[in-house]
Amino acid sequence: MADLTYTTAASDKDLIGIMALQQQNLASHLAPDEINSQGFVTVVHSLQELQQMNAIEPHIICKDGDTVVAYLLAMTSRSQHDIPVLVPMFEMFKQMDYSGKPIADHQYIVVGQVCIDKAYRGKGILDNCYACYKNSFQSGYEFAITEIATRNQRSVKAHQRIGFKELYRYMSPDNEEWSIVVWQW
After folding, report:
1. Which of 100, 32, 112 is nearest to 75 (CA)?
2. Percent of the chain that is helix, strand, coil (3-state, to 5)
3. pTM for this one?
4. First to last CA, the chain
């Protein structure tokens, strides 16, 4: 682990590394006990979607040598129609207030998804990735915002530790409860 590098996704190889890690951690690929103890990711991104998002703002990655072992996806409102399952979240941003005005009227960046390789969890990598995220984006955005499935308690607790605060909870049409959280810089 001496070779860990925190950087931005700069090539298709980096994006393919994100996709590989994502596939290993999809809720649909995990046993219920692993979901409860280790967390999970929900959305599947294509290479094209990751490329489009990365062209607007680069994703934050952690690499061990040439292997992506963690990522934080960067997503702006310019991508709000690119991933259909996330459209409702962006629609909610038009209706939800933060600091006296709709979220959609702020300059914000969405943490599109977070994932750490199982072998690298509990070693401070998430904190370092978020430090890199903040350093990369705080000059252009007021805050970071994301939504977390409330049954993903590992992610909920990790985001609370980083400094995210819950703004709102809602139930999606598939009966998943989501927490919208914000990290004010």
Report:
1. 112
2. 40, 30, 30
3. 0.92
4. 29
